[in-house]
Amino acid sequence: MPSLRGRVWQLGDGFGCHRIVPNRFDFRRTADWAAAEEHLFEESGLDFADRIGAGDLLLAGTSFGRGHAHYHLQAVKALQRRGIGAVFAVSFNAIFQRTAINEGFPAWAYGAPLAELVGAGDELEIDLGTGLARNTGTGGTRQLPPVAEVVREILDAGGLEASTLARLAR
Amino acid sequence: MAGQILARRCGREVTPGEAVRVPVDVVCLTDGTPLGFLADGVHRVWDPTRVIMTFDHLDRVRMPALHQGKRAFLDAQGIPPENFFGIGRHGISHQIPAEHGWALPGAVFAGGDTQAATMGAMNALALATNESTHNTLATGDVWLIVPECVSVRLEGELAPGFVAKDVTEHLQQVLAGVAEGTIVEFGGPAVEHLSIDTRLGIANVANNIGALSMLFPPDRVLLDHVRDRAKYAYEPVHPRPDAGYAAEVVVDLGEVRRQVRGPDDGAPPRPVEELDGLEVTAAYVGSCSSARIADLELVARIVRGRTVHPGVRFVVTPISSLVAAEAARRGYLETMLTAGVTVTTPGCGACFAGNQSPLLLEPGDRCVTTSVENNRGRMGSPEADIYITDPAVVAASALAGRVTDPEPYLEDRAHAVA
């Protein structure tokens, strides 16, 4: 996976799925992910929600993606369609994180160390393969443990299904 | 225990934070599990003898070829007919594997539905694979970031008339911010007094607190339960005295109280007394977090010889065909039907609006329910209010037409059950 470079937004602790896409919508039933993206962050409570765009990187606190797993997929799909590069949280709802990675969307628990390197509005460059993170504004860097190999294999393939099909073809 | 199962399966010790691929013993599909590329007629499941399918969502609108279509897939894949829990043997995927010996001690269990951690009650490492299930079906493994474990020591005794649902509401508060992303391992002196059904009801809550799964130890009660049911060889995993936990929590079951949580998922739990008198129009006992035999017993005890309030539609959906049959044998169904309760075919029922259920909430409805989630629209109209509580509160409230503490309804019936 090539390194990611983007503007950082901070979302805080306990950012649940319903704040990504409101739970009153159930796009998992219709698989209408374009519609899911239309409602992205609609009830997030973030005053900068409409400025989060393609290539941006989300920095979150604990329990990112909390909420019933029925609604995880529409949240991940909406983030992906907006073009958001990754979410780095202090901790994730475990099933949300699995769903994100399965869809090929980087979600990794880099939240704590990255919060010391970058703040809202900064630009972050990060290589998931080497774990090297850089604040492009200050030039400060931090060496993090690389994302686990099994996960990188899935992300490199573009998601679990593509990764599985590649394994089956080997 | 989780670490031992993973080490056994991976052939080496594993440490929290690393990602591994773990071979699974069984995959449980539901009628709602997408089959992905496996529907192409070319790709094969890794081991047809280790795949089971339960019918529970019963959504004929979205899946018109529900029974025959799924049956054709299973036949084409060479999955034995007895692995298919279709109409007649159906029930929720978070009950059937425990009843029929498919979730076993020490095994790795992959479930296609969100609440799959429920099978952790069986001392299995139970993982929800959701939309990715077809990948596991094809490869026979599941990837996993090895989680930390949290120890929950259960002490004390549940008061009479209390069930798993009361424990799970309590655990959601006690474990908030403690168990996110972890596997919760239960232990302590209270475990041996909990029925398998109660354990299943408790482990069902993992997803609601963001835990990856939950695990109960393999005590005599469990080993007796699985002995004659087991569908494959198994090796129980016992807690190690030197096991390292990210946190250790003690829960006194004697402190568990009845709670009500609503009108939606933004509301905190409150003691039932605080909401006493709130008018209700719909009532539901069902879903994978309830509607086991102890729950139906409680409902029968409360409604026996009484009548559901004319302003309330009260629907009960037994969790499985076997539970429905047992409820019939004990007279609970007759008691409930006589009282004006609508009892439906087993399954997920009204818990989720996409399922087949006569309850489907309309605008302005206010529902008390034992089901899993109460985000707006979950059970029908987003303009309906949903209050999650235990089956005793639901039954008493359905009789009174308003939220009611069930204790007065239970007091005179401590020994009469049907």
Automatic annotation (TrEMBL), chain A:
Highest taxon of the lineage: Bacteria
InterPro entries reported for this sequence: Aconitase/3IPM_dehydase_swvl, LeuD
Keywords, sorted A to Z: Lyase
Gene3D superfamilies per record: Aconitase, domain 4
Keyword Membrane applies: no
The keyword rRNA processing belongs to this UniProt entry's keyword annotation: no
PANTHER family hit by this protein: 3-ISOPROPYLMALATE DEHYDRATASE SMALL SUBUNIT 1, 3-ISOPROPYLMALATE DEHYDRATASE SMALL SUBUNIT 2-RELATED-RELATED
Protein name per UniProt: Alpha-IPM isomerase
